[in-house]
Specification:
Length: about 120
């Protein structure tokens, strides 16, 4: 088993290059991302979050207008913009989702102790 692991690692290093493998890029391309900028819409039920997301995706309302209209978070007044944050500044499920989204992508509803969030990642650095 140990030899099999060594063989796999050798192949991985050969195909990806030692520097990207050592930097962790082979396993997780987001490791070099230390902050994301995201917006969210906070509502009390998953059903409401799904309906709002559906309306955004159908083009009936923009994400920012939906945040202004429906979000229970004070960030709603700014179109849901939370600014930049690192992984430890938010609840883990929220951070994990924001970091995993592509820029401009909108998440499925994410439940936390605060309610249900629809998250849109707007930048990474």
């Amino acid at each position: 088993m140990k030899n099999l692991i060594k063989l796999f690692l050798s192949i991985a290093i050969a195909f990806t290059g030692l520097s990207s493998f050592a930097a962790g890029g082979f396993f997780n391309p987001n490791l070099d991302i230390t902050e994301v900028r995201a917006s969210h819409i906070l509502v009390s039920s998953r059903k409401e979050a799904l309906e709002i997301k559906k309306n955004i995706l159908n083009g009936n309302i923009s994400f920012e207008d939906a945040a202004l209209r429906y979000s229970q978070c004070p960030s709603g007044r700014r179109g849901g913009d939370l600014g930049y944050f690192n992984r430890k500044q938010m609840v883990q499920s929220f951070s994990d989702t924001a970091f995993d989204l592509k820029i401009g992508e909108i998440s499925a509803p994410v439940g936390t102790k605060f309610g249900w969030h629809i998250i849109k990642t707007t930048d990474k650095r």
